[in-house]
Amino acid sequence: MKSLVVAGVMSGTSADGVDVAICRISPALAAGGTPRIKLLGHLGVAYPKTLRAAVLAAMDADAISVAELARLNWRLGEMYAEVVARAQEKFGVKVGLVGCHGQTVYHQGAAEKYLGRPTRATWQMGEASVIAERLRVPVVSDFRPADLAAGGQGAPLVPILDYCMFRSAKVSRVLLNLGGIGNMTAIPAESGLDGLIAFDTGPANMVIDACMKRLYECEFDRRGAVARTGRVLQDIVQKILKEEYFSALPPKSCGREQFGEMFVSRFIAMCRKAGTQDEDVIATATALSAASIAQAYRRFVWGHVGQAAPLSPVEFVVAGGGTKNALLMSLLTAELEAMGAKVRLMEELGVPSQAKEAVAFALLAWLSWNGLPGNVPAATGATRALVLGKVTHG
To answer: How would DSSP label each residue in 265-332?
Structure first.
């Protein structure tokens, strides 16, 4: 094993663009240690409007042509290659490896019967051959299927980064990412990898953004300004929190299949039935995101970090685009601090919020390139730790 400069490429469920993290990743200094990760630079680039529209249409499509999907796969490959090339130029480095998560257009982590057999399925688009050819470096892509094949959910995959970079001997840490979906990793103080717990909490930005698009023709609620003018329908929030996904035990994962257009239509209809204004819908969606995360922490994590290290403080470290929503952050902070957690931003630990998931896929690519497992079975539910991804040589 040797040190490599790796580009991690991430496109999240919000489908707002591409994040590239350029990292230097080196082997552990001692046996039993974890890889050393240094972030050299981060570049975020928004999708062109037409490309974002195509991605969102593919995610929620009841019917779409095979030709459209094939073309989108190749177009995304070109986009990813272009952004990595721009990041190389900006930071004055040449990468030796790329780890590309791709754009999820379908994710079904739990087995459902299909053509007579229980089946799991996931699909992340973005043609790796295009990236490898444009950049002339190997690309590791398609990380999730190996975990699914071993009985896992295929998500979350970021916990391996959380453990390598952010575990602590002195404090218990809960790492929360506020993307389209919220995902949480809890690492008790002095814990090994087997003591980690991680799962998707439900919607973070996804429902808020979709309601803003429908009601205001805006991509998102900047700093929570619209939600601040509305009233929260607590009865609707509490009713939704009793639904199956929120009460299901981890490991669990979700996406637009659970909280996409069908859910949003039902959610808006529930609000309309209660006689709301548009701003009340946004306020209620924001409250739902905060309450679902707080409930997940209370039910599944609080006892875990407290019992494992009763004398250590708990730090709740938040990353992702949702950190820019001041109202969402204030609601979350109030709930979590009431349970004794200290809320911090990811930047305080040296990693920009928007870069974190891209850094994770740089690490996962490095692990795969060196034949090392990248999933955490305690988080995904897989039967074993596995080397993830498929390699395309440049």
So the answer is: HHHHHHHHHTT--HHHHHHHHHHHHHHHHHHHIIIIIHHHHHHHSTTS-EEEEEESGGGG-HHHHHHH
